[in-house]
Amino acid sequence: MTTTPQVPSRVGSFQARVARDVVVVDGPDATSFLQSLVSQDLDTVAVGSSAHTLLLQPQGKLLVDFYIAHVDGDEWWCICEAGFGGELAAGLKRFKIRVKADVREEAVGALALRGLPLPGAVATAAAVHVVAVDWPGGLAFDVVGPEGAIVALSDIIDAPGIDADAYEQARIEAGVPRQGFDTDERTIPQEAGLELVAVSFTKGCFVGQELVCRIDSRGRVNRHLRRLRSVAAKLERGTPVAYQGKEIGEITSAAAGVALAMLRREVEPGATVTVGADEALVEAL
Fold this sequence. Notes:
CATH class of the domain at 13-156: Alpha Beta
Order of helices and strands: EEEHEEEHEEHEEHEHHHEEEEEE
Radius of gyration: 19 Å
Helix content: 10-25%
Distance between the termini: 32 Å
Mean pLDDT: 94
Largest sheet: 6 strands, antiparallel, barrel
């Protein structure tokens, strides 16, 4: 595969090597154990399918944002942003009392496929697991498995390869939050729109449910993740964002001409904000 710095459009097709952590949960009680903890309803996830879910803190704030693949019977692969596998494993083990389930981290390689149907070579590969991921504008999958298998698949997939900077540009354009950048341990799911894709409000109990459901039924959050766009402003992570002379948040991820920022709720999409000495347009994700 030839890697280029080309930046794809929102609906462009591409592949990119990405860093992911995997936590495997298996054993006779694995399914019921996970079902009692995570925000998504796993009863609807058939073997061979996947779902977006969250492990929250008891207070309702984010612990780990991840995808979960139902591999076989009572075996599940939990796939998260690199650097959060240990936190996910520790968070699950904290609740593992008299439960017949093993929780372990697995070293993997990972490949992001965006804007194209799942290639047959990937669908039939025995050593890898595929999850459909949230990515506005087109089909999107993450493929995880042994490093050698990922390299081999990357070489035969008919899609242009892009580097890490170009992938970040595409991610920010798509408005996809990245844990450790756009979300952290202070984040309430509704602030980043995660309740729309990763929370079931009908499944019954899960860790942190009370706050999430209370906000959904009769509350609101004070911040929202927004996209900023500017051809003039220097968009950099950590830069304060101001509105009518008042600081209302900061940039959480940035690329050429576009950024994500966690902003106070009173600043609506379409507003013009100040970043440094220049202006940027606020967009909804």
